[in-house]
Amino acid sequence: MPHARNRNPSPIPEVTWDTGLKEMNETWKGAIACLGVAIFFVMTIGIIYWQVVDQPNKNWILRGGFSGLIWERRTHSLVIQTLTEDKTFVEIDVGNVETSDTEVPFVRNLCWLNKTEFCYTWDSMADVKIALESDDTSETECYTIVWTALHCQVDLKDCFSMTNVSWYGGASLHAQSWPINGANTSMQPFTVSDLRENPTGYGSVLERYFLGSSGVAVLVDPAVPLQVGFESRTQFCLRAGPGMVRQPLRYTVCVGRDLRAVHQEVGSKLHPHRRALPNLSILRLPFWKLLTKVDSGAKVERELRTFSNRLKRHQLGDGVISLNEHSTSLLSHTDHEYVSGRRRTSKRQARTLPMVRLLNISVTLSPYLSVDSRQFQTSLQDGTEAYWLSVPTAPHGHPVPLLTQWEGKFCVKLNLSNAAAVSWLLDRVEGLQSQLDAEYVILEGGEGAPSPERGPRLPKAAAGDQYIRLLAAVAAKMGASTVVTAGTRSSDVPLFIRMTPLRDDWTYSGLKGLIPSVLHYSLMGYSFFLPDAVGGSLSSDFVSDEELFVRWLEIASFLPVVTFHTPPWVCGEDRVLNLTRFYIAKHQDFVVPLIVKYATQWQEDRSPIYRPLWWLSPDDPFTHTIDDQFLIGDEVLVAPVTERGALQRDIYLPGDGLQWQDARDGRVFDGGTLLEDYPVGLDEVPVFTRRES
After folding, report:
1. Counting beta carbons within 10 angstroms of the beta carbon of residue 127, is it exposed (0 to 12), middle (13 to 18) or buried (19 or more)?
2. Least-confidence region, from 183-197, 384-398, 612-626, 642-656
3. What is the pLDDT of residue 480?
4. Which residues pair with 227 in a beta bridge?
5. How far apart are the first and last CA of the chain?
């Protein structure tokens, strides 16, 4: 039988199937791991590239009918542009609420169900809510922005760029500029202060309103404890600072086709009440300040008669002789006593002054009372200390009168939230008017606010600018011939407002600041004002510069009221007296009828009586920075000289398609024309009247 052959051995070692599979899996696992790392690395690089390079620098947050709000990721700013992106209205820097090491995309809208609102929480520091108000019947679109701090250490501050935008509004300043881009003030409470005591503060006319030449307006909510700072020609900032109580920063930004249209639209939000006219008969009467240093009422009476006789002798016509508070007190011999919380008038007050009653005078009062006066001492004894602003000595302690300073004396200030105290002041004014037959009352002291460092201990009636509003309401009860010295949210009240005193020089703290102040007051709604006296009244001395006096007189004659601190006869030349008579007559015959004409328009549609040149050419950038010319209504252009020794000046005539006629020689020029080196004599003011083309 055959033998079976044995199989030759294979050169490849035999292995089991399980062993081969295990070795193959280890190999593929390494490859897959390397591939995963590579993919992760590529994705990481892609994400970083998208965030840093490829991601759009701006994201549309809200869109209106013609404008939209954009988030600029790199600059950390909100930008309002037209939808076509051909015009930028405003850029708002909000990078101050984020930490430097945090990149915030700011694109996730937490109010995604509402296309007119945007909500976002900024890195657990602050919430922001932006609401768009767009109406087909309106030519403006408004964005209300509300920042709310999530803890009390957050500093809420938004800054508005001045790049390519001229800004107006806000507050009057020590050296007033027009526009306000050149202002440079530290961050401080946005409240009225006395610029004589605080020249770096904010002055007597203040509104939480800013207008930009790009067609933008900013309106800050009155409830915000606002601080404002200016960085010259760079930006201005709004701030609701940190504190124990988290206060939101709330403001509204409105945009429109041009700055005039926006101003007229937003004006209804700034001054919602219908305006009332003051007594316009004041316009025809120059005011003469009686500067006297006497110590008795009899001497004041004698000085009054002497001054009145001089006005008649120099044929300066009818006017109002203005007494300061000290002279008013001496002349009136008023001595108020408090008995059981009511006022009793001494017999001396009943004495009439027949010679004074024949004169046309204005009296001056303030809500201050010296702590050395018998009236104040009596009020502490009979329980009427509630007449004065008071602060508690402890959280639940008995209030004590708040001590402050006024005219160099320690004083207390009337509590205008106390009806009895207001009645006492009104009775005092009525007594003065009856005794002296004084129709005109100047109520000073609104700008003398208590120090904000007193914080929450301040009474509510003295907080912020509330006292000024209360004082304006009290002044209105004294009659439509009353003059106040500060205004905020009170342009609808029928009062005149007196401008802050200026220096007797040619700087922006003096003559050059007069026209910017006129434009600021009028734009803020205060078209009825008493400008500072001819030559400036900050100094108690008479003006010695004759040229300054004349150039100041020429400007003042086109303003609502001509006021004098230096009598023209002090200059010693008949030419100055003759010019004074001429310009007083020109004011009465030419200017006053214009003011009365445009007063109705001011009352109805809030158009200022004194207007900047951009009012007629809002899209002409040349008009945005002109600070030495002004319009009265739409028909008269005034271009005074404000440079020492100048006998010529450049004059710009606004309005393409308009024509302007020189009132001096009848020559006619087209609007949009720059008249270079136009000759102007020392006794002349260039005036152009608008012609219908």
Report:
1. middle
2. 384-398
3. 95
4. 189, 239
5. 140
Phi, psi angle pair for 470, to nearest 5°: -65, -40
What Cα–Cα distance (Å) separates residue 388 from each residue in 380, 396, 443? 10, 18, 17
Q: What is the pLDDT of residues 495-534, one digit of tens each?
A: 999 999 999 999 999 999 999 999 999 999 999 999 999 9
pLDDT at position 290, please? 93
Lowest average pLDDT, out of 195-199, 641-645, 653-657, goes to 195-199
Provide the 8-state DSSP code for 448.
-
- Nearest-CA neighbor of 565 among 515, 530, 519, 522? 530
One-letter amino acid for residue 366 of the chain: S
What share of the chain has pLDDT > 70, as a percent? 83
Alpha-carbon span 675 to 626, nearest angstrom: 14
Tell me: pLDDT of 248 over 70: yes
Q: What is the pLDDT of residue 520?
A: 98
- The DSSP line for 524-574 is TT--SEEPPPBT-SSSSSPP--HHHHHHHHHHHTTSS--EESS-GGGG--H
Q: Comparing 146-160, 381-395, 408-422, 639-653, which segment has the lowest mean pLDDT? A: 381-395
Residue 344: count other Cβ atoms within 10 Å of its Cβ.
Answer: 10
Tell me how far apart the alpha carbons of residues 456 and 187 are, in angstroms, rounded to a whole number: 20
Residue 492: partners with Cβ closer than 8 Å, 6 or more residues away: 271, 273, 274, 275, 276, 525
Write the pLDDT tens digit of every residue in 533-552: 999 999 888 999 999 999 99
Per-residue pLDDT of 497-506, as tens digits, reads 999 999 999 9
Rounded-to-integer distance, Cα 300 and Cα 5, Å: 154
Q: What pLDDT is attached to residue 571?
A: 83
Provide the mean pLDDT of the chain. Answer: 86
Task: For residue 673, give the nearest of 660, 692, 686, 687 by alpha carbon.
Answer: 660
414 DSSP 8-state letter? B
Q: Supply the pLDDT for residue 12.
A: 38
Tokens at 646, concatenated: 């100048």
Q: Residue 652 and residue 675: Cα distance in Å, rounded?
A: 6
- The structure tokens 């009856």 sit at 434
318: closest CA among 287, 355, 280? 287
Long-range contact list for 602-608, CB < 8 A, 24+ apart?
A: 602/275, 602/527, 603/274, 603/275, 603/276, 603/277, 605/264, 606/264, 606/267, 606/268, 606/271, 606/275, 606/525, 607/264, 608/522, 608/523, 608/525, 608/527
Residue 4's pLDDT is 38
pLDDT at 97: 57
In this structure, the number of other CB atoms found within 10 A of the CB of residue 118 comes to 24
Cβ(484)–Cβ(446) below 8 Å: yes
| Structure-token match 């900013």, residue found | 218
* Token pair belonging to 328: 């008013």
Separation CA 489–CA 273 (nearest Å): 10
For residues 71, 75, 80 and 82, what is the CA-based torsion angle, rounded to 10 degrees?
-90
Phi and psi at residue 487, in whole multiples of 5°? -150, 135
Residues 423 and 688: their CA atoms lie apart, in Å, by 49
Query: What is the pTM assigned to this prediction?
Result: 0.88
Q: Is 396 exposed, middle or buried (0-12, 13-18, 19+ CB in 10 A)?
A: exposed
Alpha-carbon distance 573 to 577, whole Å? Answer: 7
Max CA-CA distance within the chain? 171
Q: How confident is the model at residue 29 (pLDDT cuts 50, 70, 90)?
A: low
C-alpha to C-alpha distance for 69 and 158, rounded to whole angstroms: 15
